[in-house]
Structure formats: structure tokens, C-alpha cells
Please model this.
Amino acid sequence: MYLSDIHTHSIASGHGTDCTISDMAKTASKKGLKLLGISDHGPGTFASGTSSYFRSLPFCPKKRFGIDILYGVELNILDVEGHIDLSEELLDKLDYAIISMHRQNYRSGSVSQNTQAYINAMKYPAVKILGHCDDTHFPVDYETLAKTALQENVIFEINEASLAPYGYRGDTRLNTARILYYCRKYNIPIILSSDSHGKEHIGDFTYSAGFVHQAMFPEALILNNQIPKLKIFLQTREYIVS
Model:
């Protein structure tokens, strides 16, 4: 069992759920999690949280139903230059940011262009996690991404919603295997993420954990159960691998 899940979406993401943050926290507590991260979609996603919503998050309770709560954002990469959909002023006040490509906001280009878009977006200090870059609709050079992630101290997620049967990003298994290969090669930690829209899949890593374990990926490089190290990483963007 893994004790943290920091890629989840509440009603503020504007689609797929009517759950409040309190609903999410209550479910996470019942499931035995110790740390929950709320990472609603940035304003570029239709009907998602506005800048005012993200401005208010730092004032929300840091503990709910006995578990720690972090407040982040899943940013939309908007173009090859790596522009994102929330200001640095607001990002600096959040606990972390995930960067992702979504077809509503980013028009996929060549492998080189998509890779460069991720690289440029990684330059923002608030960015800590590469979100579902296993997506077959956005081909990238994984070794180049891994080398840049190592340099910038950014980590990859292994996304449950990509690998599960209900996923919609194509057959992501080969891309996930490549991510794990280069993370092992360059000693880069990963985080398992449910990408739960609402409370149904919070803390559910059935397919992502199964894939990672089948690949014999080192447990020491999986941060979900290393909560003190995960918190330090999110605060400092520096990871320490024992």
C-alpha cells in the first residue's frame, strides 16, 4: 500500500467530478493515506479554477480528517516555448506544480518540438513533476527529458489513469517502460499518481504499481511512501536518493 497521492482533481477542475476538497480528503483518510495533494487543472482547461481560486488555496487548512493536505496545480503547457497557464506569482505560493500536455491546449508537434516544450516548461521553479508524459499523442525523446529532469531536479510520474483500462492516452506501456528505464539509468525518483477526478480512484495504483513492480524498478526511487523526502523535494526541488 502507498501512503500518498498528489495528482488528484476536485470539482474546481471543471469536469468529471462534483467532489469538494473536503470530500477528497475524507475519502483519502478512509483509504489510509497520510498525504493528499490537490492538483486541479490550470485556468487553461475549460471551466477549471480561475486565478482567484489558486490565489486562495494557500490559506486553506493543511490538515483535514487527520491527513496532511498539499495544494498544487496541474499546469497546461500551451506551446513549444513552454508557456503555462498560471502566473509565477501564484505558482510561488502553491506547494507544487505538475506540467502536462492536453489536446485542448497544446497542438502536438514533432518529437523534438514536444520534448523542447517540456524542457522549456521545466525551467519554472515551481514545476516539480512531469505529468503523464507517457501520452502517445505527444511523442517525446525520453532520454533527453530524463537528462533535463536530472539537471532541473524534476521527477516523472507514473500515471494510473494512463495504464488503467479506462485510460484514453493510447497504449502507454512502452512509453512507461522507457520512462522507468531512464529514471533507473539516471537515478531519478518517480511518483505514482492516481490522476483521480473525484474520489473514486484516490490512492488507487493498481495498474501503475503493478507495472513498476513488474519492471523491478527500485522501491527506493518511489517517493509515495517516503513522505518526509517527498515533502523536502516539493519544498526545495532537491531530491536525495539513499
User: Anything to note?
Assistant: The first strand starts at residue 4 and ends at 5. The first helix runs from residue 21 to 30. The radius of gyration is 16 Å. The chain has one domain: 4-236.
